[in-house]
Structure formats: C-alpha cells, structure tokens
Design a protein that fits this description.
heterodimer; A: alpha/beta; B: alpha+beta; 4 helices; 32% helix
C-alpha cells in the first residue's frame, strides 16, 4: 500500500505517518510532500494507492490538488485531513473527489475507519473504541524475567497498589523509545532504585542507605542505576522488539509529558525487595 | 480580584478539551489567571467571512509536553523547529473548532509562533478563555480586526 501525505507542517506529516502505523498500516510505504504542487508531481510519477492531504497549503492547496488529480483520472483514493472541516469544505472536497474528510484532532481509530471505508484493510486487526494494541509485555512475569539471574540473591517481587504518577515521592524514572518514539517508562521509589543499583555490584548497604538519605545517586551507584533500567528494557520486549533506554532522572516531580503518556499505557505496579538492601515500589508502563 | 465569569468562556473551554483530551491531558477551569510572564504564543489569522485571529498562550512546560505527546517523542529530543511547528498545529486545531461558530466562508492562514506576553486587554478582543491543562495555564483569545 503506497501512501502520499501532503501537508506543509512537518510536525503534522510526522503525526499522520505515526497514526497510519498505529491504525494498523505499518506495512504502508509512505512518502511526503510539503505542498500540493510537490504532491501532484509525486503522485504523477509514483501512482500511490492513497493520498492524504491537508486543505490549506502554500503553492497548491488541497482543493486544487484534488481537482488536478480528478482531471488526471487518478486511480487511487483521496482523503482530506484538516482542522477546518466545515460543511462548505467537506462539500468542496467531496465534489473534487475526496472519499473521506478526517477532522483534526484525530485518532488511530478514526484513521482506520476512514481507510477501511475506501477498502484498505489493516494488517493488525480492527481497533475497537480507539484502543491500540501494544507491542510490549507489561506484567509481573516480564519484570521477574528481566531481573532474573542478575542479583546474587533472588529478588522478591509481588504486585502492589498503583503508584501515584502525579506524586510518586522522590523517585528515579527512565523513558524508553522504540523506532524513535517514546513507548514507555519505569518509575522506582528511590530506596528501591538505590537497592537495585547497589545490589548489582554488591556496594555496601550502608553506602546505599547514605545515598538514599542524601537524595542523590552518584558515581558507581548512578552507573548501576542506568544498568538496572537497561535490564528493565528486557521487560518491555516482546517478539524481539526491545526498547532502548533514552533518559534517566531522579526527582520528586514526574514531567508532565510522562504523566500524560501514562494514560495511554498499560501498566504494572510491583513491590520489590532486594535482599540485604531495601524495598520499594516500581511502576512499569508501556504502550 | 478577577471575576470568575471573565475567566470562563464555556465554548472555548470545550474547544480546549476537544484539542487536549485526545492527547490524554486533563483540562480544568482555573481559579486565577497568572499574567505578565512571557509565554509561547501561537496565532492563526482568519479571513473571509470573519477577519481576525486566534491566539493561544502557554508556558514552556505545557508547550514541551504537548509537542512531545503530539510527536510521540521526548520533549528534549525535539528541535526548535519541530516544537514550533507542533505548537503552531495546536493553534490550527483550536482555530478549526472556533471556525465552526464563525460566518462561512472563513479561511485559516498558516500559524505563526513567537514568544510574547499575553496582553490583558487587547484591541478587538471578542472572546477569551482560560484553562488549566494538567495544572498548567493556557489562554485562548479570539480577536477581530
């Protein structure tokens, strides 16, 4: 399935591309154009199956593009993705051959519905109610598996009450990416983070406790913390798709970005005891 | 003391919800409206049946988070142009909803993004809505030429 996205906003082209993937069309070969004139040239040479175009663009807007394609006898399907989806605009788009109009802001579900309406079946199955299927395993067994065989004595891991992502207290957190997209994160209460870090190279418990009291992990402890978060990447892996660790921070405030991301994620909250050290809660969340 | 009825434009609050709730951001009414700080302003000119513009003001924290969520990437991995482009899209989305209450045909121009202090009583102000998005203030202004 070959798709052309025409939009003068690079951010919006990226969002449309991402949403096409999330809608179950990861197999699509997608090319982009920053205005209608470039899109027209691309379509004439490449003959895509689908055009998704913005309405307001410089050089050649969405309407002129659709009209030009109509004259050409374009054999693919066309649709408009726009914030200005008025009655008048929809009518003009329809007359110019557009098979659907998607109003921004859109969801993967609305994209899938529009594409299915013009005969494109998603590869990953139908999305119901806007929920997307995640690529990662998010459960206690996954966490156990990622930390198994690493510590001198086995960790005690059990499900716990969900952490309050808005007010987790002094915590360490890390963000994971897959294919350049933020896919999930881990938050650990600081005593647990320090214990997991200390336990990796048997740093004396008194030193670990002192670091927790000071509210900062440095040197070997910080390096080990990064390693512990790297191990957690394995917990997010499914079918060989392991995420990469992108950012590690310690603080009392989880960034607004992560707080909002948590609402899109499946999550697993556990309590971990590191024998010889301390215990605390961990929240693993992934899309 | 600012009167609460000058803070709440129910229609614009609904617009803010329509734009930010799909990004899984909570939108609430503010108790007061901070003023005087330099914000990220995004504006879209409107022309045709209605001549004017929509302006959206928010601080760094909200702008970063919104741009990161829109692009699915960590905010600090975004370039300045990606952030400004995404923030411009927010004004575009808001203007698209506001457009539904304006005389047809009214067209949207390309968004502009800049640093600016939100004016308290700008000339041509028709509507003004303030909200909190995840506790961070945002202001939406509809101005007529």
């Amino acid at each position: 399935m070959n798709v052309v996205i025409a939009d003068d906003s690079r951010a919006m082209r990226m969002i449309v591309r991402k949403t096409i993937r999330e809608a179950g069309y990861g197999h699509a070969d997608i090319r982009e154009a920053e205005d209608g004139a470039i899109a027209l040239e691309l379509i004439r040479t490449w003959s895509p199956d689908l055009l998704m175009t913005d309405w307001n663009m410089p050089n050649m807007g969405g309407l002129e593009l659709l009209q030009a394609l109509q004259k050409d006898g374009f054999g693919g399907a066309s649709g408009v993705v726009s914030s200005a989806a008025t009655v008048e605009m929809r009518s003009a788009a329809n007359e110019a051959g557009a098979r659907f109009v998607i109003q921004k802001p859109f969801t993967a579900h609305s994209f899938q519905q529009a594409l299915m309406s013009v005969g494109f079946k998603p590869a990953n199955g139908v999305i119901s109610g806007g929920a997307t299927k995640g690529a990662f395993t998010v459960n206690v067994d996954g966490i156990r598996g990622s930390l198994a065989g690493v510590y001198k004595r086995p960790l005690e891991i059990s499900e716990s009450e969900p952490m309050d992502v808005r007010n987790p207290g002094l915590s360490a957190f890390a963000v994971y990416e897959l294919n350049g997209n933020a896919q999930g994160f881990v938050i650990m209460e600081l005593p647990l983070a320090a214990s997991l870090a200390g336990g990796l190279s048997l740093i004396p418990p008194a030193r670990v406790e002192a670091a927790v009291k000071s509210g900062a992990l440095e040197g070997e402890l910080l390096g080990n913390l990064n390693e512990a978060f790297n191990l957690m990447c394995r917990a997010t892996g499914a079918g060989g798709k392991a995420a990469t660790l992108k950012k590690v921070e310690i603080g009392t405030e989880i960034p607004l970005f992560l707080r909002a991301l948590s609402r899109k994620c499946r999550r697993c909250d556990v309590r971990i005891t590191v024998p010889g050290y301390s215990a605390g809660r961990l929240c693993l969340a992934a899309k | 003391m600012v009167r609460l009825d000058t803070l709440i434009d129910a229609g614009l609050i609904r617009v803010a919800r329509s734009v930010f709730e799909p990004l899984d951001l909570e939108v609430e009414l503010p108790r007061h409206v901070p003023h005087g700080e330099e914000d990220w302003m995004s504006s879209v000119r409107l022309s045709g049946g209605f001549e004017g513009r929509v302006e959206v003001y928010a601080g760094n924290v909200l702008m970063d988070a919104v741009c990161g969520l829109m692009l699915g990437r960590l905010p600090d991995s975004l370039s300045d142009s990606e952030r400004e482009d995404a923030w411009g899209e927010i004004a575009n989305l808001i203007a698209g909803f506001v457009l539904q209450d304006l005389p047809e045909p009214t067209a949207l121009a390309h968004p502009q993004v800049a640093r600016a202090v939100r004016p308290e009583r700008p000339e041509g102000l028709l509507r003004c809505g303030h909200a909190l998005v995840e506790g961070e203030p945002i202001s939406i202004l509809l101005l007529q030429n």
